[in-house]
Amino acid sequence: MKIYAVLLAAGMGCRTGFSIPKQLIKIKNKEIILHSLGIFLRSKINFDTIIIPVPPSSVFNFNWENFFKKNLLNGESKKLRIITGGKTRQQSVDNSIKYLESILPGSETENAVVFIHDSARLFVTDEELHLLLDKTACYDAAFLCSEVTETIKEINHETKTDIKISNPVRFKTLKRDNLISAKTPQVFKFKIIKRALEKAAAENFISTDDISLVENLGLTVSPVLSNNVNIKITSKADIEIAELLLNRLGRS
Question: pTM, whole model, 2 decimals?
Fold first, then answer.
């Protein structure tokens, strides 16, 4: 069985307020993307190839190939394939799966497995990777998730701006016991995620995560509870939290 990873790095991370993509921001003297890439390079799973979709050069002109060669040791960069990402997460995933299909022999597509991960998540464990792989082997797709601990309220999209100016708004409170928060990695048999992307394209179905694409096929997937610190870096505050966590966990 061939096992691949897609490490999404095509976003610009505007909400962090920096002039560079957030995956190049340093935490403890190492770029965020190197922290997240290390999860897959150090894994006992031994990934065959790691595909990294990055921003188009017209958006952010940066020599990604040289960056990885300079910062990785012992020929680790030979496992990487740097491709151009899309304007959205879904487009970047689609580009990655199409690239993977172009390099996969036809005989290997049946049993190949693909991990899709946010480069802004640094705290996934190797144990979680193995759990996801086992569940995917049984159920075709699996993803990390966490229980929802806060009360979640649904609001009409058109009135969302009213929150910023404290105008009265009508809410709907969702039942917390029925909710989970989806995280990454999200893992699929290659044939399943390929089919899901093709159906989404045909229906113009847009989603903010990859498991939703498989849900759109009408298939069931396996949720795996994640560790408590599997945060996604989105804001400057998240960067500070991540540095504190890295210090506490003793990682450089």
Answer: 0.93
